[in-house]
Amino acid sequence: MAPQPGYDRPIGIFDSGLGGLTVLRALHRRLPCEDLVYFGDTARVPYGTKGARTVVDFARQDAGLLISLGVKLVIVACNTASAFALDNLRESLPVPVLGVIEPGVETALRATRGGPVGVIGTPGTIGSGRYQEGLVHGVADLPGIATERIVTGECPLLVPLVEAGWEDHPATDLVLDTYLEPLRAAGVDTLILGCTHYPLLKSQIAAHMGPQAALVDSAEALAGAAERLLAELGLRRRDGLDEGGLPDGRLEYHLSDIPWKFAEIGARFLGRPITDVRTVSLEEMEAAGHLPPKG
Ligand code: DGL
Questions:
Q1: What are the tens digits of pLDDT across the range 87-146?
Q2: Are 150 and 126 in the same domain?
Q3: Is 78 a catalytic residue?
Q4: Does the CB atom of residue 15 touch ligand 1 within 6 A?
Q5: In a domain, 231, yes or no
Q6: All residues at 6 or more sequence positions from 279 whose CB lies less than 8 Å from its CB, including other chains
Q7: Does residue 154 sit in the same domain as residue 213?
């Protein structure tokens, strides 16, 4: 599609904290010339153990902040926020909104070989039932699967273990063993990593699950979906060029708090040091939550 007005604006990505940097990283790898603006709600993380109403309120503020920064697309990198707030954001935001659940479900439905499909995530994500609904209903041209084929697991302890840099610690090994045992016993052939932090544990999870289980990294799945959506809408930055390459896009970070060990944790999620960080006050966040009427 021909370039549409606004194709050269940045893509906005938000998460409850720093975990969504795994999504930013996947996006930057796939769409290197796009400018990316990240907001992490580090002052109020975690979302995964909070109730639906709080998560929706926070997500509206996070998305509102990105809208105020002029983004052309909002990406909800946080699985918990995607589970609770995606419909609300799609109804109220003036730009397209993409969450991690649909791309993850689609990738899993393509990958499964007829066996059980597993989903692991925060208590909020699993409790919301959104991954399960997506798997049952199917997406695009893919039929859904029977409820009996879905096995889920809440894994709240993995978030702090990853943040502590304990990916290879024996404690994490024990926690993974405990969480993954029922999924392994069920013989899942495909496992959705339904949380921003789990891509950092991919090799450890693979070792626990065995070679028969294909792992679906929702960050990678989302980056592919974002590329397709931007192309469909004529909003890829490259669409505006006659020829020649563009330099690498700008990466910009906004956080509601600078947590202890922020630089170290952030670099681990992103794979490179974080520079150019602005802090956003909670007053500013609340004001951003008053989204202008759509249209
Ligand atoms: N970003 C969250 C998710 O993907 C994990 C951290 C949290 O609980 O806020 O669900």
A1: 999 999 999 999 999 999 999 999 999 999 999 999 999 999 999 999 999 988 899 999
A2: yes
A3: yes
A4: yes
A5: yes
A6: 254, 255, 256, 257, 258
A7: yes
